[in-house]
Design goal:
about 450 residues; Heat Shock Protein 90; four-stranded antiparallel β-sheet; disordered N terminus
Length: about 450
């Protein structure tokens, strides 16, 4: 037994499942007992000897609430003749009523004479009395049976109850009771199932939220002892992940910051270097300072997550493309339906800007579109460049990785652009991939939750 946050004790998951199974079993047994003591026993299909005799003579009558007797001709009597004393008595009575020798009557495929069953006899007798009062014939057979009479031409007239299709009245009544009991139990089962499954649904939502926002609040779930333990472990894991990311980010930021001091000293020392070497050294120091500045910016953005709001993604992509097109860049954007997602507008604008700039820089022109998929929104940026070898298509997302061997800002930049794009996409619960198009060119595809 555990206690919820408000102090109320909550049963363990094992106890709750055991209670659900126990309630179901008790309810099923209660329904069975109710049916046993309240529903009348089924009335068998019984047939008077007079009805059987008429059917053997080829005149089966129409019966009410009973299966009709089926008449047919056969070259031989049915197999499985009963030789019990009760069957011999019934055979003699039928032969007497039909005016034939007892050897011309065969009773087969029956397992009892219902007169020996006192309960069945009372049911049939009471029903016969209700139908016609005292004096009604009390000689009858109960299905199943098969009776044959040899005709003068040597053939056998065979009479048997027709095979029933579907359920009889008593079976329909029992099925109705079971259906009603199932309808009564359905809301109870639904409430139990909802109570048991709700914590797991909240776990799934919390895990998805953690993937989108590492700074998400701790998980609060009230439930069984097992759920409380799992929620505590999840919160501890989330806190450890948060501290781990913060420590690593802070360490990278500190390293990048501390690098500025020796770079400054190197800048003063190269003043005494030969003129032909001074320019190259200064260029290297400038590049290293740019890398340090980019690293500090990356760390600053990673440690200060922006405010998440509802925003219209297609308009954001169109705005970025229109602004860059005004500077003379060759950019096209396909107009798309409006799609609203939850995200950081500043970070997403930076994501689109980096991808469009890469497409223009390495592929001469860019073409952007927003596609709505099932439970996702896709941003695609096409270029007309040479593409990327498959072996390097994942390495381009590594920080400071550049396929351009030179470190010139004009051709390659620092190498953090795509790393920033992937970081932003994954912080929103999505991802980014690069795909080489068959006809040439590269497509940057960003998938975000819809």
């Amino acid at each position: 037994m555990s206690r919820a946050r408000d102090g109320r004790p909550t049963a363990s998951l094992f106890v709750q499942v055991l209670m659900l199974v126990g309630v179901s079993l008790i309810t099923a047994q209660a329904i069975s007992v109710f049916l046993l003591f309240n529903l009348p026993p089924p009335v068998p299909d019984f047939y008077r000897f007079s009805e059987i005799a008429e059917a053997l003579q080829g005149r089966p009558g129409d019966l009410i609430e009973r299966r009709d007797l089926q008449y047919s001709l056969a070259d031989s009597p049915p197999e499985g003749e009963s030789t019990a004393d009760s069957m011999m008595w019934a055979r003699d009575k039928l032969a007497e009523d039909l005016g034939v020798a007892p050897s011309a009557i065969v009773i087969a495929k029956t397992y009892r004479l219902p007169i020996s069953d006192r309960r069945v006899f009372r049911i049939v007798r009471d029903r016969m009395e209700r139908e016609g009062g005292e004096g009604q014939e009390d000689r009858f057979l109960v299905a199943p049976f098969e009776i044959a009479m040899q005709r003068p031409d040597g053939q056998w007239a065979v009479v048997r109850p027709q095979r029933g299709l579907g359920l009889n009245v008593w079976q329909k009544r029992v099925m109705l009771w079971f259906l009603l009991s199932a309808l009564v139990m359905a809301p109870i089962a639904w409430m139990f199932a909802r109570r048991l499954s709700q914590p797991f649904r909240l776990f799934a939502q919390a895990a998805e939220r953690l993937g989108r926002d590492p700074e998400a609040p701790p998980l609060t779930i009230r439930g069984s002892a097992e759920i409380a333990i799992a929620a505590g472990a999840f919160n501890q894991m989330q806190e450890r992940l948060r501290r781990y990311v913060q420590d690593r980010t802070a360490m990278v930021g500190a390293i990048a910051h501390d690098l500025r001091t020796p770079l400054t000293r190197l800048r003063f020392r190269i003043e005494n270097a030969p003129e032909d070497q001074r320019a190259k050294m200064a260029a290297d120091i400038d590049q290293m300072e740019a890398m340090v500045a980019a690293t500090l910016g990356f760390v600053r953005d990673a440690t200060r997550p922006g405010q998440r709001t509802r925003l219209e993604l297609a308009s954001l992509v169109e705005s970025v493309c229109d602004e860059m097109a005004e500077t003379g860049a060759a950019i096209e954007v396909e107009r798309a339906e409006k799609v609203v997602i939850e995200g950081d507008p500043v970070a997403l604008r930076r994501l689109v800007t980096n991808l469009v700039e890469n497409a223009v820089k390495f592929g001469d022109r860019a073409r952007a579109r927003v596609i709505t998929a099932e439970r996702a929104v896709i941003i695609e940026i096409d270029d007309e460049g040479p593409g990327i070898p498959e072996a390097e298509i994942e390495r381009v997302f590594e920080p400071f990785y550049r396929r351009e061997p030179s470190r010139s800002r004009g051709t390659g930049g620092i190498g953090l652009g795509l790393a920033v794009v992937r970081s932003i996409a994954r912080s929103h619960g999505g991802d980014v991939t690069m795909v080489n198009r068959p006809g040439g060119g590269l497509t940057a595809r960003v998938t975000l939750p819809g």
